[in-house]
Design brief:
Largest sheet: 7 strands, mixed
Radius of gyration: 22 Å
Order of helices and strands: HHHEHEHEHEHEHEEHHHEHEHEEHEH
Strand content: 5-15%
Strand order of the largest sheet: 1-7-6-5-4-2-3
Helix content: 25-40%
Number of helices: 15
CATH topology of the largest domain: Aspartate Aminotransferase, domain 2
Number of domains: 2
Distance between the termini: 63 Å
Oligomer: single chain
Number of strands: 12
CATH class of the largest domain: Alpha Beta
Bound molecules: pyridoxal-5'-phosphate
Length: 407
């Protein structure tokens, strides 16, 4: 058999990274629908349990289809980066049942009762809620700081010695707020904090937080990584391979938020076209943002590729491209927002993001309905705000649909 070439280009990793030879010569890694694995002997079983021999033991602990997704994503996040000694960076990833499961494992694997999380207000709703509602019952609380004001962040760290973890999400939902990963990580490391970054909106194609001294990156793979809206999933990737293989694996296995072979199979196949999809998503988003910015029914557009976005400079520095997510405010407020959504003929009205087709949602009447209006406005989620995950349709069709819905 030929020795395989180590994939080096990003696109090549999308296609071949993590692929494991399979005894029946199947081209694609099959869906390993098996809860348990068979031993050859009593001695082998004992050796596997002691970790002396590598191999699959039990489905919650590992699965070949899942393993392929994990290795592929770890390679993508490490692409082109080096460690302290100048060698190619090695990362380890653990696939979860959802983005929220990855967050649970990651946070509970780093923070103990009595310790605190330092974070910012523009987080994914589920992350905000688990910090607010579930973690406090376990003795873990979150302190909110303005991550745009480094002096305020440093003051917050100095004021509370129990802060253990800095939790960053950038770009963030739905205003596309962007914070400076490098500056925040440098500050966190000065005080010995662990840093975790939710990289869902950007994907490793547009942003690689491990370029800086970030310890963990996570994704909801439900979004752009799967890319087709076919499965819920989440991934936690860590720089400390030893820790990821021991303590973090233990936390993951015991919390039980493992993924499954079918969802992993869908994810692996979605990942094959990640760079192609992202290029088209991004170019369509750019054109959509320009169209909206010039439309007289639109009060303003939040897109990181527009110089009018307050975080334009940060995005330029740390992202390869400002991405495929945008939001915009209609002049007529909440009623105009509802009317617009009801008039769409092509774009899909649904929450979630990162699918091949364009998804549009109205946060004020759906995802953020439960947030008190005052607080919602403070976060920039105004009454008429529309969020868009720009898809891969022909741009003319997207723009025509938006145009007719605003008439
Ligand atoms: C969707 C999402 C999550 C949660 O992921 P699930 O797969 O829905 O559990 C976390 N962070 C961000 C930024 C998201 O968009």
């Amino acid at each position: 058999m030929n020795t395989k070439l180590t994939p080096s280009g990003f696109d090549t990793i999308c296609l071949h990274g993590g692929h494991q030879a399979e005894s029946n010569r199947s081209h694609l890694t099959p869906v390993y629908a098996s809860s348990t694995y068979v031993y050859d002997s009593a001695e082998q079983a004992a050796a596997m349990f002691m970790g002396q021999e590598q191999g699959y033991i039990y489905g919650r602990w590992g699965n070949p289809t899942i393993n392929e997704a994990e290795e592929k994503i770890a390679l993508l996040e490490a692409f082109g980066l080096t460690d302290e000694s100048g060698n190619p960076l090695k990362l380890k990833a653990i696939l979860h049942a959802s983005g929220m499961a990855a967050i649970s494992t990651g946070v509970l694997g780093c923070v103990k009762a009595g310790e605190k999380i330092l974070t910012h207000h523009s987080l994914y709703g589920g992350a905000h809620e688990i910090f607010e509602k579930t973690m406090p019952g376990l003795g873990i609380t979150a302190t909110i700081s303005d991550f745009h004001r480094l002096e305020a962040v440093e003051k917050a760290i100095n004021a509370d010695k129990s802060i253990r973890l800095m939790y960053i999400e950038t770009p963030a939902n739905p205003t596309l707020q962007c914070v400076d990963i490098e500056a925040l990580t440098t500050l966190a490391k000065k005080y010995g904090l662990t840093v975790m970054v939710d990289n869902t909106f950007a994907t490793p194609y547009l942003q690689q937080p491990f370029r800086w001294q970030v310890d963990f990156v996570l994704h909801s793979t439900t979004k752009f990584l799967n890319g087709h809206g076919t499965a819920i999933g989440g991934i936690l990737i860590g720089r400390d391979v030893q820790l990821m293989s021991t303590a973090m694996t233990k936390t993951h296995r015991l919390l039980g938020g493992n993924s499954n072979a079918f969802d992993a199979f869908l994810l692996v196949n979605g990942l094959k076209t990640l760079s192609l999809r992202m290029d088209k998503h991004c170019s369509n988003a750019e054109k959509t943002a320009a169209f909206l910015a010039g439309h007289n029914a639109v009060a303003n557009v939040n897109y990181l590729g527009l110089m009018s976005h307050p975080d334009y400079q940060i995005a330029q520095r740390q992202m390869k491209h400002p991405g495929a997510m945008l939001s915009f405010e209609l002049k007529g407020g909440i009623d105009a927002g509802r009317k617009f959504i009801n008039s769409l003929k092509l774009c899909t009205h649904a929450v979630s993001l990162g699918t091949c087709d364009t998804l549009i949602s109205h946060p004020a009447s759906t995802t953020h309905m439960g947030v008190p209006r005052e607080q919602r406005l403070q976060y920039g989620i105004t009454d008429g705000l529309i969020r868009m995950s720009v898809g891969l349709e022909n741009i003319e069709d997207i723009l025509n649909d938006l145009g007719q819905a605003m008439e």
